[in-house]
Amino acid sequence: MRRRRSEGGRLFRSAAALLAALTLGPSAGVAVAGAQDANAAGAISLLLPLGARLVGVGGAGVAGQFGAESQLVNPAALGFATRREISLLHGQDLSARRDLLSVVIPQRRLGTFAGSGYLVNLGEVPATDDFGNQIGTVYSRTVSLAASYASTFGRDVAVGLTYRLLQVRFDCSGTCTNPNVPTFTDNEGGTASMVDVGAQYDLRRHLPLALGLSLRNLGRRLQVRDSEQSDALPTQLAVGARYDVAAIARLDTNARLRVSADVVRGLGAAGADPAVHVGAEGTFRNTFMLRGGWVQKRGDSGPSVGFGYASRRIGFDVARQISGLSVDAGEPPTFVALRYYF
User: Fold this and answer.
1) What predicted TM-score, i.e. pTM, was given to this entire model?
2) pLDDT in tens, 22-42
3) Checking DSSP bridges between strand 134-153 and strand 157-174, what pairing results, if any?
4) Structural domain spans, the chain
5) Is-contact 195 164, C-beta < 8 A?
6) Distance CA 152, CA 158 (A)
7) How many Cα atoms are found within 13 Å in the side-chain-facing hemisphere of 94?
8) Which of 180, 219, 294, 333 is surrounded by the fewest CB atoms within 10 Å?
9) How far apart are CA 67 and CA 75, in angstroms?
């Protein structure tokens, strides 16, 4: 029997809270609390880190150029892309497993187009009957599709826009008819559409410096059937800078060192707590990359390290956060990226 709308909204919230508590563990509590609104749990995937290159530099990517991964932090960076790229990103920690497939296609006269599909598996909860016997499984997932466009103005300025459609799902296998089971009989969930906008200014003709600005997750509330049962999105404002250390290139023309820093602030009731991201990337012969970073935020600060390899056609990156709640629980956050240029 189909549940009433008001009950559907209540179950959506109880499902989000229960799944966060049972499947995401301590880090979920930080993420939900950091959103300053338990109702924003359905959009938790918007706050999870992803991308081995970005994680390696502590997430400081607003003023950087990280290919397809830039779609996650500042779409304007795509305007400076020069190679077509297909990327597969994977990340896993205590809170969730996530996978993203993206493609970037720069066109000299038209700008750069990019698209991606993103799946986040937030975990599962056994559905039991009144006697404690398992009769099914509830799966908590989010699925999102994104399309981006970026263009340059002259050689120094780029602007970009991303449109994203997000769906939060509580799916069931088996039988989930027990009223204590937090799911919907017809696999309903919440949906939301949002945009990211950004800009970058590269001062390389004057200084080895680049500046970036992005506004992320800007949109209407996460919709569960009607406006009275909607949840706020975690909108964020981020500013960043990137600096090329010229002294390294003078010592060895095959070497390059870039340092970067971002400041991120949540906007509105569901915005995440302020955070500072700093990182560095050393490159040798444009082939081998070594990265290090630090994230400073309430409840879950710590360093990250990463390594990368790139050739004319392929790229491989790996990164790991080496402290935090997930590490303390025995599951260090690990991120892998595979790239193909064509």
Assistant:
1) 0.82
2) 333 333 333 333 333 333 445
3) antiparallel
4) 5-341
5) yes
6) 4
7) 23
8) 180
9) 10
